[in-house]
Design goal:
The chain is mainly α and 77 residues long. Helices cover 49% and strands 0% of the residues. It has helices at 17-29, 42-56, 67-76.
């Protein structure tokens, strides 16, 4: 099972050697475009997790096919 962790800036973390090597290889292979880096900020990831949880619990509104229906729904809230 995959786990997601966030390491606060300036903190030290002890990672076993094998896991560190695997992480280092992965990190070198992943490229994040500067115009997409906002997605990886902790604040945005928190919102993504909340949205995933809402979807899982079916606590979301219906799907909108027209933008004016979406805007009207948002104005009612």
């Amino acid at each position: 099972m995959n786990k997601i962790i966030t390491i606060p800036k300036g903190k030290f973390v002890l990672i076993p050697h094998e896991e560190f090597e695997a992480f280092s290889r992965w990190r070198k292979s992943v490229r994040v475009n500067l115009d997409e880096q906002w997605f990886w900020f902790p604040e945005w990831q928190k919102k993504e997790a909340e949205a995933d949880e809402a979807i899982k619990r079916k606590k979301m509104s219906r799907r909108f096919t027209k933008h004016n229906a979406l805007v009207a729904s948002l104005k009612r809230k």
